[in-house]
Amino acid sequence: MNMPKTMKAAILVELQQPLVVDEVELPSTLEVGQVLVKVNNSGICGSQLGEIDGAKGEDRYLPHLLGHEGSGVVEAVGPGVRFVKPGDHVVLHWRKSQGIESVPPRYTWKGKSLNAGLIATFNEYAIVSENRVTRIEPSSDMEVASLFGCAVTTGFGVAENNAKIRFGEAVVVFGAGGVGLNIIQAAGLLSAYPIVAVDLHDNRLELAKSLGATHTINSSKVDAKAALQELLGNQGIDVFIDNTGQPAIIELGYELTKAQGRVVLVGVPRKGRNINIYSLPLHFDKRISGSHGGEAVPHVDIPRYTKLLNAGRIQLKPLITEHFKLDDINVAIQRMRSGELAGRCLIKMDA
């Protein structure tokens, strides 16, 4: 096939500024291990908000493309690609899977090189590394499929691989966004009880309740520590999962978990914002650990979770609460920041 010459894309030009939506030039050929995908849908993950804000410090790759969760159709493949072919419906994901890890694509914007890494989804087309796409059935709901790129695989992976939730354990999920909602749903499948969702926004807490939270706490209206202590009493917390990256909340989780409880960090604190804990409990089997995308293995996990979806054991459609055009991506980002948006929003490239 002839490669498209240009595409519309959302570009991070400067930290803490709106993305610039503009035409970008694609390379004329694909390198070894590269896959060209026509993007249908892209989710926006909280980690992209962190990238825009410069949460991890200086960004040496500006200007660059963004997005790591989406769905689309393969248009062409470069030399050596074995696991997908033109016409395949695929999930685009940031976690490594099977296949070649290629070099990053060489996009051009205003005559200069534009960085993109091995995956970017805030764009009409994506040249991605083979190990960042996983084939799905052509009959798949492509909106729901995009959530497998991060929100579902991370959320379920956190519950299964990081927290290792067991029957009847008390689980607190602090932050009920796209990933948090899936942690809650997975905790329900694993028969945790109670499952407590904590957030600043009632709309997110209502959605959390519909997906398996047995109790909810709005920490903008009540003191979360007092509410958790009142709710759980002497039972204590077995698993505390933080999606906020706020040091004070991480410290709270460490304080409130049982002597042999687990604290799992999904959210990442801004660079320089350190946590302060009394380490002695760590010597007696209290655990605190970070999660890297739930340690998901996409080509293994996506088929497993798809089976649950098709059997009606999990709900994913209710997670998608708003749709936006690529031109309106900054509006979507602002609605995420404000909390007006309850679940996951999708950027629809053909809208």
From TrEMBL:
The keyword Transcription regulation appears for this protein:
no
Gene3D superfamilies to which the protein is assigned, alphabetical: Medium-chain alcohol dehydrogenases, catalytic domain, NAD(P)-binding Rossmann-like Domain
Q: Give the matching PROSITE patterns.
A: ADH_ZINC
User: Which Pfam families does the protein's record reference?
Assistant: ADH_N, ADH_zinc_N
- Entry keyword set: Metal-binding, Oxidoreductase, Zinc
Residues forming the Enoyl reductase (ER) domain are: 14-347
Q: Which InterPro entries match?
A: ADH-like_C, ADH-like_N, ADH_Zn_CS, ER, GroES-like_sf, NAD(P)-bd_dom_sf
Q: Which cofactor does it need?
A: Zn(2+)
Would you say which domain of life the source belongs to?
A: Bacteria
Q: Which protein family is named in the record?
A: Belongs to the zinc-containing alcohol dehydrogenase family.
This chain belongs to which protein, by name? Answer: Zinc-binding dehydrogenase
Kindly list the organism's lineage: Bacteria, Pseudomonadati, Pseudomonadota, Betaproteobacteria, Burkholderiales
